[in-house]
C-alpha cells in the first residue's frame, strides 16, 4: 500500500515561498544527510509533515495561521545530528530533540509563539505538556502519521518535488553567503 501525495495545485505557492525562505535562512538542508524513519531523511520527513499539515488544514478549512503552521512543521525536527549513532547525548532522543530543534531554530530565525509551540510540543505525549495551538496539535498528529508510514515503508518514494526545490534553494543560499 502506498500513500499518494496530493497533486500539485496553484494554492501551493505559499508552501513553496515558505520552503524557499526556510532553506535560505536556516541550515535545514543539512538534515538531508540524516535518516529519520525507515529510509526517509530528516529533511524529507520535515517537508512531508509540513506539506501534509498544510494540505489537511486547507482541506478541513481549519482556522490556522498557514505561514506559522508550515514554518513550524519545517523546523520541528531541526536537531541536526544522527540520532541513530551510539552516543550518550542521543539517549532518550524522543524526549529531548524538540528542545534541541527549538534552540537551533531560535538561533537561526525569529520564531512566533505558535512556531515555538509546534517545535517544542510535536512529540506529545512524550514531552508531557500538550500542544497549546491548533497548529501545534495538527503537526503533532501529522508527524505521527508520517513517521508511521515512513517506518512501515508505505510512503511514496517517487515524488521528490519539494525535496528537489529545497536543494535548489540551499544552493542559492550558499551562493549568497
Automatic annotation (TrEMBL):
SUPFAM superfamilies, per database record: HD-domain/PDEase-like
UniProt GO MF annotations: hydrolase activity
Protein name: Phosphohydrolase
Organism: Anaerocolumna cellulosilytica
Organism lineage: Bacteria, Bacillati, Bacillota, Clostridia, Lachnospirales
Keywords, alphabetical: Hydrolase
